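Quick log. Single chain, no ligands specified.
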Amino acid sequence: MNRSEPLARMSLRVEQDIFAVRQLGREVARAVGLESQDQTRVATALSEVCRVLLVAGADTDVTFRVESYGVPALQVTMAHSAAGGSSRLAEQLQLVGRLVDTMEVDDGGIGTTVRMARRLPSGAPVLTSTKMDEIRAALAQHVPGTPLDELAVQNQQLIAALDEVRAQRDDLARLNAELEETNRGVMALYHQLSDELEETNRGVVALYAELDEKSVQLRAASEAKSRFLANVSHELRAPVTAIIGLGRLMTDSSSDELTVDQQRQVDLIRSSASDLLSLVNGLLDLAKAEAGRLEPTWSEVDLKAMFGQLRGTLRPLATRPEVEFVVDEPTVPTLRSDEVLLAQVLRNLLTNALKFTESGSVRLSVRPIGADVEFVVADTGTGIPSELHERIFEEFYQVPGSMSVSGRGTGLGLPYARRLAGILGGGLRVASTPGTGSTFTLQLPAADQSAADKTSEPAS
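-> predicted structure:
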């Protein structure tokens, strides 16, 4: 594109030249690819600027070029030989500047220069050097028409503009009617939704009220159950303990000798009483945990000593040579926790594993995991189906078809162990596969929970 050479040039000296410049501007705008409305805008802006400059006196040279302002644009430069008055001229042409993209008025060394530009649309033809030469040749043959011809063109443009305005007015009226109809539909839908929302809100409020009532009833029932379990357990412990004591006296060597049948019956009574006492103790412990009466006593627990105690107290339960009972040396020397509750959880898990392991091993270990400590009780027992992993933590629930190798289960050991784990600030989970065995993991925080509880209390 050769921008050094203008597309067209013309001088403005008399009033008739205004029509000629207007016609030439429209032809140039059409040649470079401006749309019909933009052609009219450029021609109107040219005629108005020429009129103002002609009134100011002196001659004006009008030059048409295609320049690039990021995108190609038609630029018209009008060099007025009279100097000064650029600010007043810019004020007069302020409204004209709305017809084009840019309008500049400068005072040059020998006069005043007015520059205006209109960007070419994206669909305009590419203005190569060959195309520019063709446009110059065509514009050189342009013959200006008479003022009457220009007036006729203006009238045609005005009629076209009026038709366009009328079409836009009709479209606007149609859109307004559609918008009004839409608004009526929206308002009807809004009222319908508001009524439905209000009805839903009333239902939600009623549901919340019912839930609150049920929560109060459930809380009262839970408290009543805990009181019942605690009272019944407490009342049963004394007679059950007495039965066990009487049975021991009857089998004592200092008492009268019993027959074989009597010995078997007394042993059965003592065994049943021991099972009942275990159940009563489990119910009492569970009732205390549910009632929130178990408060942990935080201290520094020596895990090596605790593991040794567990190894000694539970060794008598591992009486079958097919089962290897292993308590690993702890890799964590100490832990800030409640020694009694922690030992109770581990004892429950180990006892449960020994009951349901016919062969293989039962192993206790501990390991640090980040900011926590994990106690792991792994066995090679019968295993638990995945769909029952959570149900085994329900009170009195036992896996269907599971047979205890030694002793009887009450279904309270695992629920009690999980509650104690929560009291200690941790959790208890299980991973198990039928026929392979089970792994129970007690995860406790290694940080001082007593200090954490104090810092979490609201300031008074």
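Residues 8-145 form a domain with the Heat Shock Protein 90 fold (CATH 3.30.565.10).
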